[in-house]
Amino acid sequence: MSNNYNMKEFSSTAVITEHGVYPSTFSINTINTKCKESDVDESIYDPFQHRKLEHPNSDVRSFANLLKSSLGSGILAMPAAFKNAGTLVGVFGTIILGYICTHCVYLLVKTSQDVAKITKVPSLGYAETVEAVFATGPQCLRKLSRTARIFIDWAMAFTIFGACAVYVILLVDSVKQIVAYYYQDNGFTDTMYCLMFLAPILIFTQIKNLKYLAPFSGFANILLVATFLICLYYICTDFQSIDSRPISVGIGRLPLFIGTVIFAMEGIGVVLPVENSMAKPQHFLGCPGVLNITMSIVILLYMIMGFLGYIRYGDEAAGSITLNLPTEEIPALMAKSFIIIAIFFTYTLQFYVPMEIVWRNTKQYVSQKYYNHAQSLLRAVFATLTVVAAATLPKLEQVIGLEGAFFYSFLGLIAPSLMDLIFCWNRDLGRYKYVLIKDIILIAFGFFVLVTGVMQSIREIIRISE
After folding, report:
1. Which stretches of 44-198 are assigned E, i.e. beta strand?
2. Which of 85, 168, 162 is nearest to 404 (CA)?
3. Taking the chain (466 residues) in consecutive chunks of 10 residues, what is each chunk's mean pLDDT?
4. Segments forming the whole domain that contains residue 306
5. Interatomic CA distance for residues 3 and 190, integer angstroms
6. How many domains does the chain have?
7. Which of 415, 465, 422 has the alpha carbon at shortest distance from 442?
8. Rounded to two decimals, what is the model's pTM?
9. Sign of the C-alpha dihedral computed for residues 426, 430, 431 and 432 taken in this order
10. What residues contact 129, with CB distance under 8 A and at least 6 apart?
């Protein structure tokens, strides 16, 4: 893509403009605070006509950007998700969860567009939308608008930090397999492997200029495509009978399936930057629309990969299917090496995003002459914390489920539904208040995923660690 650099792995999303701006987390400082009443004529301001884009994206390019951002190495975790559901439940579960995630993305974008009319700003990011919805919503919530924006800011930051910890776990597991094949009984522990990555991570995360990081995104994408093709080759060369796998498994494992699928598929942080950069943003929603077309393809590919990978490897399916490939064979060794390089570059690029959020919310407490030292220290601290988290929770599959259940269920399911409900509360809840009913159901489902997914993931981590 020519105008945006972006990279999404395990569906932890970052869209960064060519100038190093992460546009979905800015604070609102242009909001028209006088336009907060429900009787404001929204038709007098069209935010689409007021957007001044130097290089607007066409519908096709926006589709490509969203598809690229939604298809990361999270697809390699889908076979592990299916083993917690079964073949039939996995297929239909992926479709249903995909529809729910798509609808919640729709709610976020639609709310953002509607509240932009009221606040009279051309475009809003995720955190901005939350602030604007609270600021123009029920009277009792307006004083919480800034707090809500800061909360979403930090939630987004820690979500991506969590994904970075997942990257480290995948790096460790992949390197450990290769080292163990060539040097058996090497005596290295998971903690030692994590420490091996700490030094290069600390070095690369000190790069503050995005132009030195963004080129690695394209290289990582090429490696990921090659890895995906190699995985398909191994799946198809020794394909098992469909009847060899159960159509469903115990319901107690379903929360792990839901958490993993949401983690792999959810790209809630990328949609507003893509929509904000479109030449015709009115084409993003609707039928067919850029969003619906993209998510239909994403759901189909995730479902196929999960189904075929589970049929091939069954209960042996690992948190990333690359871990199931035979290390002694050259193509498999290439895939494992490719994923190591791609994930490492992705870590450094994704790390840029939460650090921008952290710095924006902390720099007012630092004297300007110490800015460089403070930034370097913060980067080193948070990079170290992701490595420590990886060393503490070294079970890839369970950590993916935990991350998906805890963070992405909130940002991807609960928050968009809550924003839609708050925005419509004093305006229009629809016939028979169907908006109220629907959003309450979605919020309840989000909390169900959060609670059950976290509990089951922690239970599995403890069980495996014993």
Report:
1. none
2. 162
3. 37 36 42 46 70 80 77 82 92 93 91 89 87 91 90 87 87 89 79 87 82 72 87 85 87 87 76 83 84 90 91 88 90 92 84 84 86 90 91 77 81 92 87 90 92 84 72
4. 41-465
5. 40
6. 1
7. 415
8. 0.80
9. negative
10. 108, 111, 112, 115, 272, 419
